[in-house]
Amino acid sequence: RMDHRALEMETKLYKAIHQDLLELHYQPKIDIKSNKMIGMEALLRWHDSELGQIPPNKFIPIAEESGLICDIGEWVLRKASLQILQWKEQYGLNLRVAVNISPTHFEEPCFIDRLKIIIEETKVDPKSLEIEITELSMMHYNKELINKIKKLKDLGLTISIDDFGTGYSSLSYLKNFPVDTLKIDRSFIVNMIDGDSNIAMVSAIISLAHALKMNVVAEGVETEYELEILKKHHCEFVQGYYFSKPLSVSDFDRFLENNR
Ligand code: C2E
Ligand code: MG
Ligand code: MG
Questions:
Q1: Which of 47, 52, 55, 255 has the largest count of CB atoms under 10 Å?
Q2: pTM for this structure?
Q3: Going along 120-208, which residue ranges are E strands?
Q4: Does any ligand 1 atom lie closer than 6 A to the CB of residue 57?
């Protein structure tokens, strides 16, 4: 089933993890009212000496199919935790960093235990850690899943649903999951320019979130126009190129220096 290119990539990815060739970039999340940064999202970057820069949308599916995704997810959690501590020491900032966890990894029975080990080993404050899971992780609605999310909450972590609105899942699951934040998928934000019905969609998602006592992050905000509409509809947080692209750690240090 796997073609040659995918197999080659899998081999390279395996090496990349074990030789520490992956990198995390960080994109700020901004409070729409105060324009202040409230935290950031960690996003994987992989540069291969032969294949060049490979976007996560290409290699994450391969990692999922091959089972490498659990190693990758744990690497990301550990790396992000250490970075949180580094920034805290350097700038005295308590920034919350969100990590993307793919459904396959999240569904692993040992996910929580392994996470606990990472928290203990790095000594990160769990309140500084946020987990982003896509709607796909929520599709198989059951007690076990709810318990898992509750356990994460009990540990002190924050939970977001990523790419909200794209999962075609039933809305009825939402009220039963103790999640903190909905992230409106960029496809909704980008389409707001095409008229009122698309704005109505975004507005409806924001209302839904607030009715369920959740916060909202709009993903992929690129323009002043988008920002203004989101403000008007009481969206709390935004993320996107309008404020900043995902930044390498050294670029982020510069960003923090400039925004002190
Ligand atoms: P995501 O979690 O929804 O991340 C947001 C994506 O939108 C990122 O793409 C980000 O660079 C991009 N983005 C942010 N602002 C803008 C904007 O204003 N305009 C546009 N056009 N794009 C914007 P990226 O980094 O390529 O990641 C793509 C997806 O790959 C992520 O979507 C996530 O699903 C996955 N991914 C990335 N890092 C990880 C990771 O560490 N673990 C897992 N499991 N998945 C990851
Ligand atoms: Mg995300
Ligand atoms: Mg997203």
A1: 255
A2: 0.96
A3: 129-134, 158-164, 181-184
A4: yes
